[in-house]
Write a structure and sequence with these properties.
Layout lengths: L8 E8 L10 H18 L1 E9 L2 E8 L9 H27 L11 E6 H13 L1 H4 L14 H5 L2 H6 L5 H8 L7 H7 L2 H13 L2 E2 L2 H28 L2 E7 L2 E8 L2 E8 L13 H7 L4 E9 L5 E9 L2 E4 H5 L7 E5 L5 E8 L5 E9 L2 E9 L6 E12 L1
Parallel strand pairs: 4-5
Antiparallel strand pairs: 1-3, 1-4, 2-3, 6-7, 7-8, 9-10, 9-16, 10-11, 12-13, 13-14, 14-15, 15-16
Helix pairs in contact: 1-2
Length: 394
């Protein structure tokens, strides 16, 4: 099923691990994934109604919340969802690979998306997702499973401690359909037959809804495919046909244009096949960050007020001395080393009352600079830039 955008519908997202590998190995992994989820749902205007994180896969029930221009194409609309999932999966993979010293893909594919008719399936889909751990024998009672949004729906102390603010509007909308009935009782009222029906529809056609909704989805798919074929035809018309031949390190390009056939020779770059030294440049660059402490100058974007902070990277954790004093916990972080040996690190910290601060820094030639964004419920967002003054190994 193409990943199209459909107004007033929900998307049931599934991502599975490559080779059935565990993508969540401990509490820190689950926490880091949720931090990325919070960050990118806000960035791309995604409303999350429910989630469930299983050791080998995860499920999301989402809706595109951001208002798009009326002339936006189907492709542009669906791009918001694709970009959201790309950034979520790619950045979690970078974090996971860095933490466990592995390389390559973490997920079997980008993601699978099924179309759900919002009314009347919203509540049943949240129940279907929340019951997944119980179905897989990961818990005896689904509402006690710590890595799903079920506890958020219960509004209990555990949910408040984890910070449910990023889902509150979606949960309130869903619970509003119950007319003050108990959500746990509703979940228990979803029969085995209901679950099997939903599962069958999702597996077979990737569409759950009325006949009218199914027709609407199929029509949108045809429009999407027709638009794609039109773009391909336009590209083919604009561009000449090219064939490539390689011989002796020289590429011959055969151009079939309107005026005849032309040969152009281009020397191919020869890749260096020498063995990589035992200690790579990448490893040396990463050592600059791990077990290090950086004194930085922070500058507020709204007032240009300056302050000092100390950023530490120790035992796989990031700590901001300033935010630590405000109750923000240490966090795991992801690392990327670019071709020019620039290091890019990212992390998010959670604090009391659901506050979140996201960090992104770059290290090049022994100097660090970056940005930090603080989001707290009931307060205006605050953004900061920072630059290192000095650093040392710990």
């Amino acid at each position: 099923m193409p990943r199209i955008y459909l107004k007033d519908s929900l998307y049931f997202i599934t991502c599975r691990a490559e080779h059935n590998e565990s993508i969540f190995k401990d509490e820190g992994d689950y926490t880091m994934f949720l931090e990325f989820l919070k960050k990118y749902q806000e960035q791309y205007g995604i409303k999350i109604f429910s989630f469930c994180l299983i050791p080998e896969h995860f499920h999301l029930l989402i809706e595109l919340e951001k208002e798009l221009s009326s002339d936006a194409s189907v492709q542009n609309n669906t791009q918001e969802i694709s970009d959201f999932m790309r950034d979520l999966n790619n950045n979690y993979t970078k974090y996971f690979n860095g933490r466990y010293d592995r390389k390559g893909h973490l997920f079997r594919e980008r993601y699978k998306a099924a179309f759900i008719e919002k009314n009347p399936y919203l509540l049943k889909m949240t129940a279907y997702i929340h019951l997944n751990p119980e179905k897989l024998n990961l818990t005896n009672d689904a509402k006690n499973y710590p890595y799903s949004s079920y506890q958020y729906y219960m509004y209990n102390d555990i949910a408040k401690q984890k910070g449910m603010g990023f889902m509150k509007a979606a949960i309130d909308e869903a619970l509003g359909l119950l007319a003050n009935a108990d959500y746990a009782e509703f979940v228990r009222g979803v029969s085995k037959e209901d679950g099997e029906y939903i599962h069958k529809k999702l597996q077979r056609g990737g569409i759950l809804g009325s006949e009218e909704f199914v027709k609407r989805v199929k029509t949108e798919v045809e429009v999407y495919q027709a638009a794609g074929e039109g773009q391909k035809a336009e590209f083919a018309t604009r561009n000449s046909t090219r064939m490539y031949f390689a011989f002796g390190g020289i590429f011959f390009i055969l151009l079939a244009g309107l005026g005849g056939l032309y040969f152009v020779s281009v020397k191919a770059k020869v890749r260096n096949t020498q063995k990589v030294p035992a200690v790579s440049a990448e490893t040396q660059r990463l050592s600059e960050l791990r077990s290090s402490e950086w004194q930085v100058k922070m500058v507020a974007a709204d007032s240009e007020e300056e302050s000092a902070d100390v950023l530490s990277f120790v035992d796989g954790k990031f700590v901001s001395a300033r935010m630590n004093d405000l109750g923000y916990e240490s966090s795991n972080y992801s690392i990327t080393v670019e071709d020019n040996n620039k290091i890019i690190w990212e992390t998010m910290q959670t604090g009391p009352d659901g506050g979140v601060v996201s960090w992104r820094g770059e290290i090049e030639e022994g100097r660090m600079n970056g940005i930090a964004s603080l989001r707290q419920e009931g307060k205006a967002p605050r953004d900061f830039s920072f630059i290192s003054l000095k650093h040392r190994r710990r």
